[in-house]
Amino acid sequence: MLPCVARAQIGRSTPDASYYAAVRSLYDGQYARCAKAFEREWRTSVRIGETRWVDAICFHAMRGESLYQLGDNLGALREFDNACELFLANSSWMMRVSFQQNPRPDRNPRRLAPFGAPMRAAVYSDLPETMLISYGQIDNTQVANSGGVVRTAQFWKLDVVEVIRCTALAIRRRNQLLGPLGPHDKLSRALADRLERGGVAQANHWSEAWTDLLAGLAQLGVYKPKEAAPHLTRALFLEGKYDHRLTGAAFLAQAQLALASGEDKLVPRLTAEAALAAYAYEDWDVLCEALALGQVHQLATGDKPAADLLSGAVAWAAREHADHVTALLRLLWAEQLATGPDPAKAAATLAAAIPTRSNIATGRLAPYADYLAALVAYQGGQTEEGDSSIDATLAKYRQVSLTNFQLALANERFDSGQLSPRIAVEVYPTLLTDPSAMHWSLDPIDAMTTLTSSHEAAYDRWLAAQLSRREVLGSMYTADLAKRGRFFSNQPLGGRRCAARTLLEEPGDNLTPAQRLERAALEALSPGYRTLAEQAHAVHRELADSKSLFSEETA
Fold first, then answer.
1. CATH architecture designation of domain 3-138+147-308
2. DSSP letters of 57-111?
3. What's the pLDDT tens digit per position in 380-429?
4. CA atoms within 13 A of residue 235's CA, in its CB half-sphere
5. Pick from 85, 63, 126, 111: which is nearest to 283 by CA?
6. Per-domain residue ranges for the chain?
7. pTM
């Protein structure tokens, strides 16, 4: 992982070497330290008059990522907002870049991951790490004669792709943080509209692949998958054939699009390609998210992965001593082992996953570790230990839950008038109804946290929005849903045990065809359950038929 630090060593460029050192420290799990470091970097960023220049996008985005990993959703969103607003204020900055070299093949073997190979004939590109970019005018005679602001020509060496990468990261994280609020968010719509209009890169130039990635992500954020798809396809390669530093991010976005569009058979291949392309250009957050999404899909569907990358990636990350990457990959590997035939090995992997010398033990990964501890305990028949770990999981995750954050943000925007009643009656049902099957598959911890959290304030605002629109029947439904939510939020696991008991024990004639299929799937996972259930029913019948102290014969 050292080359990313060395990137800024030759000549004075922006961002400079201290920025890349902070990036390296972030993936070592030093989130709090990095948040402060990126704030210091921001103070040294280029200023044009009273405003910051595009290099500050990197500092805002990476400070936002540090806060995101710490679990500070609101602080992270503010930083990502700042990065995106800076981009919009300078949206045509790439038009001033001097591209003095076209992409050419890079034969460097360090691009090849030690834990897998692409399923395509990848051709990696070689481009300069920095490029010259101009600001201002060489000849200011006309401005001086006619009036206006004289801007002397200035030239900087800029890591162009790093600025684009950080812009893409900011957009992607905003999409995650906002969820169903995205299509109604002013900044998200502005990003999608500006990037869709074009004119942010030189026309018919290979660098348009980078801005296509931004456009595709922005369209995903406002829930326009059809508009996003062609942008993401063009973003994969430079000149239609060369991998580049953002190829992994484009493959990851395609995987997310495929999953949301119901084309989940494509997910294993896309996530594998994303992880390998991200490794080639040291894009560690994309590598982690790609492997995580691939595992989620595998566990949800039972399908075999397109490439078995995870075990090799765990060994590689441990050798590199990158604590954040190693911790996440070990947690993913522990989950795979826990759901397989070797829960004992899962426990050992889990025990070594979270280091104590960083912020990982108190950050976003901590609830995931507790969740896996519960899973391992349940698999080993240790119910009390499992219950204790689940309680710890939910207590920690309430602070970082995306759904809880989105509900709080919706409440705030409704109160301030940013979320009108017309929009509120669309947003609140998405957030307050029971988690969907996809929600359970993608983030079971968030789904459980949603069910066990109190959402009285959100229900009140949903009701207020409906009543202001005279939706009487809808408000009656919402009031009933609020009572139901209040009851289940006080049940173990948000009422999941009650739901499982009803599904498994209710007479088959009372179930829908979909529920009967779900029951069959659960019984297939626990083949001994039905036998034990029949034995329990027999005991119940025997007790019901036996004489009791209060029966007539014993009176």
1. Alpha Horseshoe (1.25)
2. HHHHHHHHHHHHHHT-HHHHHHHHHHHHHHHHHTTTGGGGEE--S--EE---GGG
3. 889 999 999 999 999 999 999 999 999 999 999 999 999 999 999 999 99
4. 29
5. 111
6. 3-138+147-308, 318-400, 402-501, 506-554
7. 0.90
